[in-house]
Specification:
InterPro entries: GKRP_SIS_2, Glucokinase_regulatory_CS, MURQ/GCKR, SIS_dom, SIS_dom_sf. Pfam families: GKRP-like_C, GKRP_SIS_2, GKRP_SIS_N. Strands 2-1-3-4-5 form a five-stranded parallel β-sheet, sandwiched between helices. Strands 7-6-8-9-10 form a five-stranded parallel β-sheet, with helices on both faces. A two-stranded antiparallel sheet has the order 11-12. The protein folds into three domains: 209 residues, Glucose-6-phosphate isomerase like protein, domain 1 (Rossmann fold); 187 residues, Glucose-6-phosphate isomerase like protein, domain 1 (Rossmann fold, 3-Layer(aba) Sandwich), CATH 3.40.50.10490; 106 residues, Helicase, Ruva Protein, domain 3, CATH 1.10.8. The two termini are 30 Å apart. The protein is α/β, with parallel strands linked by helices and 576 residues long.
Length: 576
Amino acid sequence: MKHSRSITETPNLLTGDIDLASPLGIVRLLRQTDAQIFAGYGTYPGLYDSDTLERMAELTDWCANILSQGDGLVVLSGAGTSGRLAMFIAREFNHLPGWPSPSPFRFLLAGGPPALIQAQEGAEDDPYQAQRDLEAIAQNSQHVFYVGITCGFSAPYIAGQLEYALQQPNWKAVLLGFNPLELARTTPVEGWPWPFKATAEKVAAASNGALLNPVIGPEPITGSTRMKSGTATKILLEVLFAAVRLQLLGKLPKESVQQFVRDAFERYERAYRCTYHGISEISQLVELGGATLRTKGHIYYLGGAGRSAKSSRPEPDAGILGLIDASECPPTFGAAFEDVRGFVEGGWRTLYPDGSVDLSGRAPHYRVSIEDFRNDKLPQLSENDLCVILGNVPSAVSLVPEIHKRGVKCAAVGWGEHPTPGNVLVVNVCMGEDDVFGVATTELSFKLVLNALTTGAHILAGKVYGNRMVDLRISNNKLFHRTLGIIMDLIGVDMDTALEALLRAIFETDELTASQRNATISECIEVSQKVEKVVPKALLIATGLFNYRQACEVLARNPIVRMAISEHVSAERAAK
């Protein structure tokens, strides 16, 4: 199977008509595409293949050797979902005892702490800032195990850090993603001497570098790497660092690492299968979410962070997963920031246990504790809203009577034998606690359910055409190129026509000036942030049937993007 386009940016053949499916049909399709995480894709090596198992064993040895040094650190880094998961994993493993030095895990997220909550324009496109961030967080350590996460092998933020890490004699540099090397991005990086592929090739060839890139197939919504790629990122890093910890504790001989990794993947695969045993309840949750967004309501996640609890048996960090899921909706679907919000017990103190960061005073967007929800959102709830309680969190559960009193829809995602609030839709994830991975496999189930809810809800609200995001916000280089691919594929035009239509939509004109035609991608991104519905307008313009003003009028008459696009794209295809 030959591909000319990044696999993470390729439409998944299973979900071509997901926008026409019922809520139950949507979840069934997500179940099928999630299966590819474990089954593999085409002729490429997947999770269970020897390429991956051998590489995981090699990385286990590298990391254990580095952490056994007095100043050894692990630095996980990414942009968007990848960076948020870096935070999640670093926090998870710092919580565990048994490391040679306390809390050896660090994380970096392009755009810094604000990007945990809200995407920061262009943050992943600055490799020089990335290098400064990495140098600062390494704190002069001579021994660092660095993992740069970029699912499509494309983020300049990661390219810059990989170049820096490879130059450090006692560091190890790992590039984690889900594309084959030959499909890494080759387009120039603005202000940087090399395309991403050149850096990836350096990593693959270096004695202190390695690629970890099993191929898990295209995303159910094209390019939405928060879904399968995010899930696989969580699995790979948790299995890797569990193996490292056991090896450091003398409980896992080197010759047994590959078998441990294989067995661990099977545990996560069981969690995936167990999650979809609740497909009926998950589809009901998706239906509630779709109705909420169609009526201009809001979805609110209310959850806890078990690893903050002073308990010998921590519960899942479900509230943080809700926060992550909510933060992904605006860039993915062009959703308003308030459409999906996450609130977690403890707020910023939960995200940064050392108290080093608290942005709650910066703007209302950054008020993310359950107490903030009680004060800011509870008085404003309407019958169009949906509140989703994540787990057994007393501070959230205690709000259910007040939520019901206001006529608001309520659901709960729970696990084990924990009590759930009455008179709500309940989705149970049944994995419980694992003797090796604790609650990590249960957290996998939570992630799958939450991704299904917000993806399905936005599909039902008309934010997806076929399996393409047609109302995404262009906030970085990757999304600019993704948008061009969407226009080319849906309208059937060449690159030049797609670029012309996109520029007209961004600059709100039919007569582009020379400076507008020659604008850099970063300049286009900056302008696009002030323009509504850039991608839908560009799609309509690319049909050749509309000028800029007419495209605006079509979308004003029919703001449900999927319906507006469908009507006119279908007519254009019929004419051809």
